[in-house]
6-phospho-beta-glucosidase (Erysipelothrix larvae), 475 residues
Amino acid sequence: MNKFPEGFLWGGATAANQCEGGFSEGGRGLANVDLIPQGSLRREVMNGDRIMLDFEAGFYYPAKHAIDFYHTYKEDIKLFAQMGFKTFRLSIAWSRIFPKGDEETPNEDGLMFYENVFKECKKYGIEPLVTITHFDCPVHLTQTYGAWKNRKMVTFYERLVRVLFTRYKGLVKYWLTFNEINMIMHAPFMAAGLVFEAHEDVMQAKYQAVHHQFVASALATKIGREIDPENKIGCMLAAGQYYPYTSNPEDVFEAHLKNRDNLFFVDVQARGEYPSYALKEMKRLGITLDIHEGDEALLRENTVDFISFSYYSSRTASVDPQLQGSTSGNIFASVKNPYLKASEWGWQIDPLGFRYTMNVLYERYQKPLFVVENGLGAHDEICEDGTINDDYRIEYLKEHIKAMRDAIELDGVDVMGYTSWGCIDLVSASTGEMKKRYGFIYVDLDNQGNGTGKRIKKKSFDWYRDVIASNGAIL
């Protein structure tokens, strides 16, 4: 069969901090992701090594204005509808709903903004797929409480989700609790608003923050089902299996360990308990989690309905120290795989690794999968006639969609839908650039935010429209 299952949810994905802009409009407060500058210090700030809790002179902050989706959402959603989107993945900016994060009463302007966005989607028959927090934490919560290191964050998050599930009942039924929850280990300020003091036990702090997010995610799952039994709530992983660099048993086991480090996050959210290997690892690291009475029952009784994930490339592992970190990726450094080509930004391209990753996730959890990020960041040129011929993007997506089809048809993997990353050009999370473009729709802005903001359809726009119209039969 060439077609995908009936009702397959084709669409595209964005994040509030990479597309909305309007950072100080509608009562919105300041968020961690607003404060990650473009340039040489970006990674230090993302990691929490360089503390930046307010705008500083001499830096450019691309999330402040991004692509101005805050004002152009009607135009943009209309374009998504022209492609035939069945679903649109977007995220909530927490500080639009609770500007500081710890208020008792939500901000009506922020609630109305998202209500209008969801209604605009519904007008075209597009199901919103909503990430509750996509690397988004009000900066006040970092300054006052230490962000997710503090148990009080569970209460603030619970308040947020109660408001969202209640207000948008009937408008939204697909939810993700945290974007790429495993990224907290690799870019903790970006992922969770964490910053670290001198001599702080960073691993202890990260694992405790993760536990608080696990509890918050389980609470959200519980509350979401109580408020609306139609809700489907998933977790979200930055995925991509590690291969061993060689058949040396040490390389094979090193790849196994790295895979396990990632899958740990879904183990807790989908199986409902800490796996034995993770407990052993924390003991070796001298980490003691503050687990409250009732936490374990909450995790056990409120596992997610589905597993969502991002996939851009596979990874490769070796015990040879001279090979470490020789290629780029979605924040993760990896040994370069000599059998794979790479994008302009060094991300290795591996469609079969996509199928492999889906098989691993489905075999391990036996829950439906939802591919919520997959795409190619590339430098697009506008031709003299005004067209943008992004055949390289079409080729990347075509091969990955074929691999997904094989996972479904040949391997029996249950996949709910596919939302390509950056369906409209937006600010790159890893580099803060606009020139690293993913979209079917070009946005006329440069790396410094200069330009008209005009939306221009790329060649891939019509291609993806045909893919959706044929339910994957035409690639």
Remarks:
- The chain has one domain: 9-469.
- The longest strand covers residues 127-133.
- The CA atoms of residues 113 and 451 lie 25 Å apart.
